[in-house]
Design goal:
The protein is of the alpha+beta class and 228 residues long. It contains two helices and eight strands, in the order αββββββββα. The strands form two sheets. Strands 1-8-3-6 form a four-stranded antiparallel beta sheet. Strands 2-7-4-5 form a four-stranded antiparallel beta sheet, with no helix packed on it.
């Protein structure tokens, strides 16, 4: 399938209308981290996606703050979220994650912030091409763009599931290993305690037998001295 110059120009324009940032961040215990994006056009669409990949109960607090410190959305102990909202004002938007609920657990948060404009690009006309053909091509390209977004979202979902399951398996293996070590140490301690108790009983029994024999040996001598 070949694309002509107008088609390539439309694709380039569509790419320039959207800007996205995808990151994976390690959120330490008792830490709050914020990330910023700037919106230059009023009415632009802002897509915000996040998912806790590993750590603790896979939950985190989040808040989105717009210009003039206006809280747009917030949530507590959420595992993941996928939101799209319209920027009512131009300026800097702040996306914050809070892990102050955790005392020891660090968490890995995968998130993406995308800013898109609603305006559609106009397809350059070409000789011999009707407006209906141009509109159909434009709609096909936007349809393909939507399908690609759906595929990307499904990939993120399965990636999150895989990371969480892998984290659960590692946590279970660690607990089994620690429990095995504790059981082994308890068995060794019980064996040493049994040996100590048996040796103690034998020592006490030997001491009592020795004292009894000594008394039997001393008693006749004492009787003879009494008669003399």
């Amino acid at each position: 399938m070949k694309f002509s110059l107008p088609h390539c120009g439309l694709l380039a324009t569509l790419v320039s209308l959207a800007s996205a940032t995808a990151l994976t961040y390690q959120l330490n215990a008792n830490e709050q981290a914020c990330f910023f994006t700037s919106v230059e056009d009023k009415g632009a669409k802002i897509a915000f996606y996040f998912a806790v990949q590993s750590g603790g109960s896979f939950d985190v607090d989040y808040v989105v703050i717009g210009p003039n410190e206006k809280v747009i959305m917030e949530g507590e102990k959420e595992r993941q979220g996928d939101f799209v909202f319209t920027a009512s004002e131009t300026g800097e938007y702040r996306f914050c994650f809070n892990n102050e609920m955790s005392t020891f657990s660090d968490k890995y948060v995968d998130f993406e912030i995308a800013v898109e404009n609603e305006a559609r690009a106009s397809l350059p006309s070409k000789q011999g091409t009707s407006p209906e053909q141009t509109t159909a091509l434009e709609e096909s390209i936007f349809k393909l763009s939507g399908q690609l977004s759906t595929i990307t979202r499904n990939q993120k979902y399965f990636r999150t599931r895989e990371n969480r399951n892998f984290s659960t398996v590692r946590s279970t293996e660690k607990r089994i290993f620690n429990l095995s070590i504790i059981e082994s140490l308890m068995m060794v301690c019980m064996a040493l305690l049994q040996v100590f108790i048996v040796r103690f009983f034998f020592q006490v029994s030997s001491t009592m037998d020795f004292q009894s024999v000594k008394k039997l040996m001393v008693s006749p001598q004492g009787a003879r001295k009494g008669y003399v």
